[in-house]
Amino acid sequence: MTIDEAIAHAMEVAERQEYLSTQNHGYCEEKRNVKAREKCAKCASEHRQLAEWFKELKDLREENKVLMQECDRLIKEKGELLKSMNRRANDENT
């Protein structure tokens, strides 16, 4: 499962549970149970929170990828600079 699929799944469950918490469906109507609706609402809230965390994770992974690329570029640049400085120092000593 990809992160995008996890986000979509969590949102689908949240939306379905929100709908169920407001409707007279078999379980709630049959039991005339407010607790069943509360469970649906709680499940919806929890899945919405999961979706938000997954989105945050996805954003952080992207940000990390950009930062790692920048670090790699800077390390390479620094390495080239050090090589150049070493060559000059060697040239001056000969």
What do these coordinates show?
This protein has helices spanning 3-22, 26-31, 34-93. Helix 1 runs antiparallel to helix 3. The chain is mainly α.
Q: What are the low-pLDDT stretches, counting only 5+ consecutive residues below 50?
A: none
**Number of helix segments?**
3
> How many E strands?
0
The SS-based structural class is mainly alpha
Order of helices and strands: HHH
Helix content: over 70%
**Number of domain modules:** 1
User: Rg from C-alpha positions?
Assistant: 27 Å
**Global outline:** rod-shaped
Major β-sheet, in short? Answer: none
How much of the sequence is in beta strands?
under 5%
The end-to-end distance, rounded to whole angstroms, is 61 Å
Average pLDDT: 88
Question: How do the helices and strands line up, and which of them pair or pack?
Answer:
Elements lengths: L2 H20 L3 H6 L2 H60 L1
Give a quick precis of the structure:
The protein is mostly helical. The chain has helices at 3-22, 26-31, 34-93.
List keywords for this structure.
94 residues; mainly alpha; rod-shaped
